[in-house]
Amino acid sequence: MNAETDRIAHWFVSGLELDATVFHVGQYCGPWRASTAGRERASFHHVLRGHWWLHLDGQAPIRLGEREGVFLLRDIPHRLSPEADDTDCRPCSSLCG
């Protein structure tokens, strides 16, 4: 991020009053797929380690790496997965230790 973008992002975020709930912090393995869609709330996802892909209907997948995140300001169909092509991924049902 360049200095001007950083300044604008700081201004934007500093003016927000957030009331957030953390649903889950976990580590996944295998061909997983996760989503908070359908909860009728805005949501955010943050990559703590590694990388994953954000899939939005009708758009190319977006790769997010360590220390990156995304805010979805309204409830929209989306999913997260470890691969750009997530056709073989299935919804999460277990965590890695």
Mean pLDDT score, rounded? 82
Report the order of strands and helices.
Answer: HEEEEEEE
The helix content is 10-25%
Report strand %: 25-35%
Summing up helix and strand content along with how strands pair, one would put the structural category as alpha+beta
- Overall geometry: globular
Uncertain regions spanning at least 5 consecutive residues: none
Task: Report what the structure shows.
- With 97 residues, the protein is of the alpha+beta class.
- It has a domain at 32-97.
- 12% of the residues lie in helices and 27% in strands.
- It has 1 helix and 7 strands, in the order αβββββββ.
- It has one helix at residues 3-14; strands spanning 32-33, 43-46, 51-56, 62-65, 69-72, 78-81, 90-91.
- The strands form 3 sheets. Strands 4-3-6 form a 3-stranded antiparallel beta sheet, with no helix packed on it.
- It is globular.
- The model has no long low-confidence stretch (mean pLDDT 82).
- Residues 14-87 form the AraC-type transcription regulator ligand-binding domain.
- One of its GO terms (molecular function) is DNA binding.
- This is AraC-type transcription regulator ligand-binding domain-containing protein.
